[in-house]
Amino acid sequence: MFSFLRKRAVSNLDEKVIVDAIRGAESLSRAEIRVHLADKTGKIGALESAKKIFEKLGMHRTEMRNGVLIFVCLKERKFAIIGDVGIHQFVSDTFWDDIKTEMQELMRQGKHTEAICHGINRAGEKLQLHFPAGNQNPNELSNEISRD
Questions:
Q1: Among 8, 32, 54, 117, fewest CB within 10 Å belongs to which?
Q2: Residue 146 is assigned to a structural domain of this protein
Q3: In terms of Cα–Cα distance, which of 94, 67, 97 is closest to 82?
Q4: Which residues in 8-144 belong to E strands, given as ranges?
Q5: Looking at the whole model, is its pTM more than 0.85?
Q6: ∠45-47-49 over CA atoms, to 5°?
Q7: 137 within some domain
């Protein structure tokens, strides 16, 4: 779980830009990237909420188990990044920590759309390296932003 460390809530997200970033990253790999926007995490926090959403969205059912979820809690100013077991065999916790740090800095600057797109693009770069798009590149999951 990561905090924006900023008092104002995420607002003015350019959802089209985010969805376009997902499409672009996915076009280069066999992976699935999703973004979920939540109003609250409750007592379980962002990471546990993200794990539940990961399951609810069926991200653990992709053929190569290489999905990545960026979970953003609007009101609590927190986010989490979760990658499935397929991608974890190729990346270390340092990779996710680096993305987190980079996204946090953009969030602190109020660049929320840019922060989310940065996370998508960085994850996409690594996914492309380990799961390059082939002749067939099915889109197993929706690219649209999910919400609760």
A1: 8
A2: no
A3: 67
A4: 33-38, 68-73, 78-83
A5: yes
A6: 65
A7: no
Q: Which domain holds residue 42?
A: 2-130
Contact between 127 and 29 under an 8 Å Cβ cutoff? The reply is yes
- Residue pair 70/38 in contact (Cβ under 8 Å)? The answer is no
Q: Please say whether the beta carbons of 73 and 79 come within 8 A.
A: yes
Instruction: Give the three-state DSSP class for 74.
Output: coil
Tokens of 80: 């989490």
Q: Residue 32: what are its φ and ψ, rounded to 5°?
A: -125, 130
Give the CATH number, domain containing residue 25.
3.10.310.50
Integer Cα distance of 53 and 16 in angstroms: 21
- Tokens found for residue 114: 């840019």
